[in-house]
Amino acid sequence: MQHQVLPLSLRMAGAVLSAMSRPFPGATARLFYRLYCTPPGLKLRPTHEQLRDQAVLQSLEVSSYPFDNRPLKVTTYRWGAVGPKVLLLHGWGGSPFHFKQLIATLLENGYQVIAYDAPAHGLSDGKRTNLVQWMHVLEQVIQQEGELHAIVGHSFGALSAALTLSRKEVTVPKLVLLGAALSAPVFFDETLRLFRIHPTVMPKVHALIRQRLREDLTEMDMHRYINGIKANNIWIAYDTTDTLAKSTEIDEYLQLYPSIQSLRITGDGHFRIMRDAAVLTGMVRFLSAS
């Protein structure tokens, strides 16, 4: 995260958290946790609404967490009726419709496309969500969908996909990661430094996650699962100008995980990578390869 991509409201919240952090570390941890479980609102563009109208909408019921069986409604979208199925996972605060160019490309190449609004996004249930819930929901979607040819994840969706395929009893033939986040702990650490939040807050954030989500934040890091992603083939595309998923970190990760195929581009950043021509071409080539 960097200041130039943060909205004013988030920068103001960061200033408040910074001022609170030393005298009130517990309260700061609770507010920080709440802030980062609340995705920003999103208004769809007319082209996104048109893409939505072309999809078959369905409602899928899943459980909320591994430890919470309360039902959660997830809205799914389907384009195409024949061919291998490709599941798309949007990023934090994103939408399936941000894959507009990719959806068109996949349909042109004979694939069925499936996507869904993550919890607390779009038409799906919830006001707050987190990575633990995203992994649990994805596991259930994979189980209910049956045979998938591939999963394509962007940013936070890419991290969710990689962790789910590493930690859950699900597998997929092919996995595509676009502008992938690699580590939830690193993200939290960088955010606390960015907002100048006192270091005493971070242990309390870890404790809060263990208490509320029954997970250890340090386990949500792809560096812990080198050669452990349960996908037959993995392809990652990333951009050297991406300020959210830093290319230097991905370069180092790829050296540790040499079986991953990759495409390194420059100039599109974090979001435009989803519609980059070289990325789309490379992805179709990867998906169609035997």
UniProtKB/TrEMBL annotation:
Residues 86-203 form the AB hydrolase-1 domain. Gene3D superfamilies: alpha/beta hydrolase. It comes from the Bacteria. GO terms for molecular function: hydrolase activity. SUPFAM superfamilies: alpha/beta-Hydrolases. InterPro entries: AB_hydrolase_1, AB_hydrolase_fold, AB_hydrolase_sf. Pfam families: Abhydrolase_6 (PF12697). Keywords: Hydrolase. This is Alpha/beta hydrolase. It comes from Chitinophaga hostae.
